[in-house]
């Protein structure tokens, strides 16, 4: 098991910059997610760490050793591919033992380790089956088996759940995390699905356009987005942005939008008057009767989506449509006139021109709550 | 889909009339293709007079008595003798000898058919092996690596097939004479390989393109070199394509006539130019020609039937795509 250190990594494909000056460190035993939309450079970054692409510049260290230009087979890394890449001409046992054969592991030990890996993944009964007859989930387990059987320094996973259907993906999320907790192996996991990343990762790096926009625990990323991109990408529904013209003054605890005064965490940074955006998570919106004191915006219910315990209510306001997550029992119907106010603790303020967050007390919250051990 | 009702209501399944029409066309085509072969087979078991009789004799045992004379004449050379000499000989010790004597001839030795046939085997299989071997490596490189001027090179390879090969017959003839490759097996193997390798590269590139790179990448991460990954992962996946390509290459090299006539005359002569020569020995010996042709068909038939399984299996999608 090892620490992975990536410094100033750059990858160019001709004139196209796939990865720009990316640095991050994956601590020993961490489950690290590279999260971003397609084409953001996350898979390219992973492939460079795995040794399948050579970087244009920068360095990669694995367990303190510089492996930037080493071949994939010299890095002692295992990888799980999105489409599993199981060899169809071999059965499950041969697939899992394939890496061991290259290492020259004796036959008895190979057998023992393959069976051990199969036991961990509960696929012992499939060992002598052919790959083509397996379901997507079983193929996934076999691919994981082929990765863990080697006991490598680190695991690379390139959207390993992307080919599974939604129900199974959820199940495998749990299994993957449980497997990680058991093996304590350093893992780099690439996904475009923020729910997967949020539910499994210790650390998430949100990538966009070749750069890491933000790196932090899932809670940090969710509660304190560094940019409008992160706020928008993380969370479902996404963060609402209320665009307005105004100024931010360091030390103030409110901004004025139209006639209303919105309280937010104390600002630590000033911003000259200009276009700003208030970032509001759907669950930070409170709906009240129209004309209520202290409300930020008037609105009209546009539509509701019932989700069981909560409902997503779309409210049309003079500043655009906002999505609010409200208790399911709250009686709202399309056409109702309401007033909106926001819970102040975790509101974010952004420079709408650059998309960057304006620093506030929110970003100083030092307690990093972790749900995963 | 079973029963007339469901078929009649299906939008995609062909209707009964379409099936009947398609079946009729297939059967007609098969007849057109098979009748000449059947005729050759029948001729090979006729006597020379039966083979040219009019009206033609079609059904063995009913219209004519089958005879092995064609095969005897194919494998033996004969010489005409006087009746006195024939009468002085001891009794014939083989069926062929007896048939030959009934035509006032004696068997003087084996014909060149067997050595020519062996030449054909060596040259056709040799050039097929070489074409497919080179083609697989080239196709893999074109499929996976950044080759400078890749598209131009591929077009150049294809362009060698755009002219009729015989157009370059004279330059090749002169070149081969200078290089001492005329009438050698090696020369013929190289020639057929140069014609087939372009086909092999193009066919195999298509097959290898279909094999996801992730297979090799997975193997290379798991500690294998690229060459090992190629051998253990890519080649088994490309079997279908390799087999199909091999069959095409073999059929071309096996049947090739024009260059064989031009460039071989003795030691390296293949069966195709030899078979028509048989006819010149002692009248028009159609049964011997037919016998040579019939035997000549067998290896390619066996090869194709043996590898049919791979041909029909198609591309295995296996574990990567569902």
Write the SSE topology.
The complex is a heterodimer of chains A (373) and B (322).
Chain A (H helix, E strand, L loop, with lengths): L3 E10 L2 E11 L4 E5 L6 H9 L6 E6 L2 E2 L10 E4 L11 H12 L3 H14 L15 H13 L5 E5 L7 H18 L2 E6 L2 H7 L2 E6 L2 E6 L1 H6 L4 H6 L6 E9 L5 E4 L2 E4 L7 E10 L4 E4 L8 E10 L3 E8 L2 E8 L9 E6 L5 E4 L22
Parallel strand pairs in A: 3-8, 3-9, 6-7, 7-8
Antiparallel strand pairs in A: 1-2, 1-4, 4-5, 9-10, 11-14, 12-13, 14-20, 15-19, 16-17, 16-19, 17-18
Helix pairs in contact in A: 2-3, 2-4, 3-4
Chain B lengths: L2 H7 L6 H29 L3 H4 L17 H7 E5 L2 H6 L6 H8 L2 E6 L2 H32 L5 H10 L9 H11 L5 H25 L3 H9 L4 H12 L1 H17 L2 H6 L7 H7 L8 H21 L1 H6 L9
Antiparallel strand pairs in B: 1-2
Helix pairs in contact in B: 2-16, 4-16, 7-10, 7-13, 7-15, 10-13, 11-12, 15-16
Whole-number count of domains of chain B: 3
Average pLDDT of chain B, rounded to a whole number, is 87
Total number of β-strand segments of chain B? Answer: 2
Largest sheet of chain B: 2 strands, antiparallel
Could you describe the largest sheet of chain A, including whether it forms a barrel? 6 strands, mixed
The global form of chain A is elongated
Topology pattern of chain B, helix = H, strand = E: HHHHEHHEHHHHHHHHHHH
CATH-level-4 superfamily name of the largest domain in chain B: MetI-like
CATH top level of the largest domain in chain A?
A: Alpha Beta
CATH-scheme architecture of the largest domain in chain B: Orthogonal Bundle
Termini Cα gap of chain A: 17 Å
Q: Can you count the helices of chain B?
A: 17
What's the number of helices of chain A? 8
Kindly provide the name of the CATH class of the largest domain in chain B. Mainly Alpha
Decide which structural class fits the backbone of chain B: mainly alpha
Question: What ranges of chain B have pLDDT less than 50 throughout 5 or more consecutive residues?
Answer: 1-7, 314-322
């Amino acid at each position: 098991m090892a620490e992975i250190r990536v410094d100033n990594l750059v990858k160019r494909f001709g004139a196209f910059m796939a990865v720009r000056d990316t640095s991050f460190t994956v601590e020993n035993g961490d489950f690290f997610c590279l999260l971003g939309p397609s084409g953001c450079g996350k898979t390219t970054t992973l492939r460079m760490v795995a040794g399948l692409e050579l970087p244009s510049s920068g360095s990669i260290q694995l367990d303190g050793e510089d492996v930037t230009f080493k071949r994939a087979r010299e890095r002692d890394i295992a990888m799980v591919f999105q489409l599993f890449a199981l060899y169809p001409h071999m059965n499950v046992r041969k697939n899992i033992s394939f890496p061991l054969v290259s290492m020259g592991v004796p036959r008895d030990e190979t057998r023992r380790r393959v069976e051990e890996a199969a036991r961990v993944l509960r696929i012992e009964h499939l060992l002598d089956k052919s790959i083509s007859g397996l379901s997507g989930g079983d193929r996934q387990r076999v691919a994981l088996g082929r990765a863990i059987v080697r006991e490598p320094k680190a695991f690379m996973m390139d959207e390993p759940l992307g080919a599974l259907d939604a129900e199974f993906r959820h199940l495998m999320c749990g299994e993957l995390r449980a497997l990680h907790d058991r093996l304590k192996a350093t893992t780099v996991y690439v996904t475009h699905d923020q729910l997967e990343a949020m539910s499994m990762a210790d650390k998430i790096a949100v990538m966009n356009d070749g750069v890491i926009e933000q790196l932090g625990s899932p809670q940090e990323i969710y509660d304190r987005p560094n940019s409008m991109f992160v706020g928008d990408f993380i969370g479902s529904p996404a963060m609402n942005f209320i665009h307005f013209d105004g100024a931010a003054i360091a030390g103030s605890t409110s901004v004025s939008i139209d006639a209303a005064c919105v309280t937010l965490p104390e600002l630590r940074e000033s911003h000259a008057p200009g276009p700003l955006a208030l970032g509001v998570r759907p669950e930070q919106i409170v709906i009240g009767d129209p004309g209520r004191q202290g409300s930020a915006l008037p609105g009209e219910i546009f539509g509701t989506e019932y989700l069981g315990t909560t409902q997503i209510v779309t409210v049309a306001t003079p500043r655009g449509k906002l999505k609010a997550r409200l208790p399911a029992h709250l009686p709202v119907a399309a056409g109702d006139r309401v007033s909106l106010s926001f819970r102040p603790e975790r509101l974010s303020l952004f420079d709408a021109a650059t998309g960057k967050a304006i620093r506030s007390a929110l970003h100083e919250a030092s307690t990093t709550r972790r749900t995963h051990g | 889909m079973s029963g007339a009702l469901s078929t009649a209501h299906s939008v995609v399944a062909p209707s009964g009339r379409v099936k009947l029409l398609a079946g009729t066309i297939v059967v007609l085509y098969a007849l057109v293709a098979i009748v000449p072969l059947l005729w050759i087979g029948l001729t090979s078991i006729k006597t020379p007079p039966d083979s040219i009789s009019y009206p033609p004799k079609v059904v063995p045992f009913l219209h004519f008595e089958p005879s092995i004379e064609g095969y005897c004449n194919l494998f033996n050379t004969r010489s005409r003798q006087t009746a006195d000499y024939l009468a002085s000989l001891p009794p014939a010790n083989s069926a062929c000898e007896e048939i030959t004597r009934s035509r006032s001839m004696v068997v003087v030795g084996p014909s060149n058919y067997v050595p020519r046939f062996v030449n054909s085997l060596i040259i056709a299989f040799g050039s097929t092996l070489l074409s497919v071997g080179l083609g697989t490596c080239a196709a893999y490189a074109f499929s996976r690596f950044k080759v400078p001027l890749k598209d131009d090179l591929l077009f150049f390879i294809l362009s060698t097939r755009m002219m009729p090969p015989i157009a370059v017959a004279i330059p090749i003839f002169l070149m081969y004479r200078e290089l001492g490759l005329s009438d050698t097996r090696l020369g013929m193997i190289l020639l057929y390989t140069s014609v087939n390798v372009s086909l092999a590269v193009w066919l195999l590139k298509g097959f290898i393109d279909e094999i996801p790179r992730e297979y090799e990448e997975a193997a290379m991460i798991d500690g294998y070199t690229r060459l090992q990954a190629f051998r253990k992962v890519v080649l088994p996946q490309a079997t279908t394509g390799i087999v199909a390509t091999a069959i095409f290459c073999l059929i071309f090299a096996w049947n090739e006539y024009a260059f064989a006539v031009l460039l071989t005359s003795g030691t390296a002569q293949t069966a195709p130019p030899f078979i028509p020569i048989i006819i010149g020995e002692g009248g028009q010996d159609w049964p011997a020609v037919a016998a040579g042709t019939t035997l000549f068909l067998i290896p390619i038939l066996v090869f194709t039937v043996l590898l049919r399984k791979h041909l029909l299996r198609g591309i295995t999608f296996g574990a990567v795509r569902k």
